[in-house]
Amino acid sequence: MTVDSGPALALATTITLGLLISAVGAPLLLRRAAPALMHRPRTAAHLLTAGMTLWTLATIVLGPLYAWALAGPRLLGHTPESCGRCSTGPVDGPFVTETPTAAIALLVGSALAGSALVLSMARAGRRRSRATRRTSARLRARGTAIRLHGHDVVMVDDQRPFAVALPGRHGGIVLSTGARGVLDQRELAAVLAHEAAHLTQWHHLIGGFAALLARPLRAVPLIAAAADAIPHYLEIAADDEAKASVGTPALAAALLRLGEPVALPVPEVGEVHALHAAGPQRIRHLVCPDDPVPAARPAVLLTAGVIALAFAGAAAPMPYVGMAVLGCA
């Protein structure tokens, strides 16, 4: 009985083509789906994060799948002499006695690529965490902890109007005296509700993971487009929470008064993962959102693409799992 490597090669080729098409075509699909995604911003952020992750995993596991197509069960230690399933004759079968060097190179290359990616993310994550801790300590040292509209806030003496949310364990909501001075009470409540939503909905975790994953992979159009879009959807999700508690007029007025995001008054701005309430470009979506119906089909296709990536990543190791579980019986 023989083990045909054709299905594994066909599967690997199909997945490769799908990954290439999605890498190039997903940014266009993402732009066309934006009006629909803006109406479900939290779902959109989760969907794009999952898409980035699954695309990366599916790409990494292509190596073992192509290796199986080259060497078959020999990668798990099966030989024609010990395994009748691999044999077409008394001694030799379709798989040569030694595992092909190319198959070994594919396995090693995939392992090294995955390890390098994880190491890169871990190092960047540690740098970001250290910078955020230092920033939080400096802001707390120069600020005053108060409670405003039901939220714990660090008030910083700075005439520039800004409000940011640092990860909860590293400082939470930071508000400048300049922002408190230009906002009325309803606008201030809207800004604080916006920042609190970043904390309660774990936006730092989602956005931080996406940024770390995209950092070494921005040459891939899909990864770059998704990583750039995720913070925007997280801000819209926080806006939706603020609208629900305070109302659209107060939030829109607050965004207009705060203007563009400003840099934090500390040195490590580039490494700190802070989410800003400012951003007048979101006012249009608040007061006159686009009709999501024309964008429904691209959004469905985008969702289907993420599901397909999940199946691709799950299908790649199936030959190994099947042989390990069922053996050569």
Automatic annotation (TrEMBL):
Query: What does the record give as cofactor?
Result: Zn(2+)
Tell me one GO molecular function of this protein: metalloendopeptidase activity
Instruction: Locate the transmembrane regions by residue number.
Output: 6-30, 51-71, 102-124, 299-320
Read off the InterPro entries from this record: Beta-lactam_resp_regulator, Peptidase_M48
Note on how the cofactor is bound: Binds 1 zinc ion per subunit.
**Protein name (database record):** Peptidase M48 domain-containing protein
Record's keyword terms, sorted: Hydrolase, Membrane, Metal-binding, Metalloprotease, Protease, Transmembrane, Transmembrane helix, Zinc
Peptidase M48 domain segment(s): 150-210
Species annotation: Austwickia chelonae NBRC 105200
Taxonomic superkingdom: Bacteria
Q: Name one GO biological process term.
A: proteolysis
Record's family?
Answer: Belongs to the peptidase M48 family.
What residue ranges carry the coiled-coil annotation?
none
Taxonomic classification, please?
Answer: Bacteria, Bacillati, Actinomycetota, Actinomycetes, Micrococcales
